[in-house]
Amino acid sequence: MYHDLPRAARFWSFLFAIDKDLAEKTRTNACPCGGRLHCANYLRKPRGTLLQLPELQRLRLSFCCDREGCRKRVTPPSVRFLGPKVYLGAIVILISAMRQGPTPRRVRALSARFGVDRRTIARWQVFWREHFPQTPFWKVARALVPLAEIVTLPYSLVDAFLCRHRRCRGWTLLLRFLSPITVPGALRIEVSR
Length: 193
Ligand SMILES: [Zn+2]
Prior knowledge:
Blueprint: H1 9-29, E1 37-39, E2 42-43, E3 59-60, E4 63-65, E5 73-74, H2 89-100, H3 106-114, H4 118-131, H5 136-141, H6 155-162, H7 167-178
Antiparallel strand pairs: 1-4, 2-3, 4-5
Helix pairs in contact: 2-3, 6-7
Zinc ion (ZN) is lined by residues 31, 33, 35, 65, 67, 70, 72.
């Protein structure tokens, strides 16, 4: 089943290449004010890979507008970082999914391997079950994955993407699909009054 990530360091460098692509698109779109975007990457300390990622791959790619009076930070979507979470997005998804999937017993082994404690996993589950379904992203995106049941998020998502593709491709497509929520502010929930 889907109880693991592609192992190779190649997987992470491949995701980094996709992030560079996404960043380039953001850069060419320029700042909403019309200003030019300059590179303003920042270093993160992602947890959850067994291999030490090279410094370059720990960078969150980001930009800053060069126009005086704006100077807005513009951060592109990412397939590596899930918003401000410390763990890499793929790890957050995998471990949360396994908690609901057919192999909950594997969670202990997985969390030990990636160094995630129970409380963190519980927080992630609240995120998937209660927060994520309320986001503007999911309200639109759920039509694209009709099989993904809210009660079993994110397992239903992993299942929807990995049942049709090989592991590396399935993970890449899933992370790409979720990338719009990795932009700062994208997880804000609109409260209707
Ligand atoms: Zn600007």
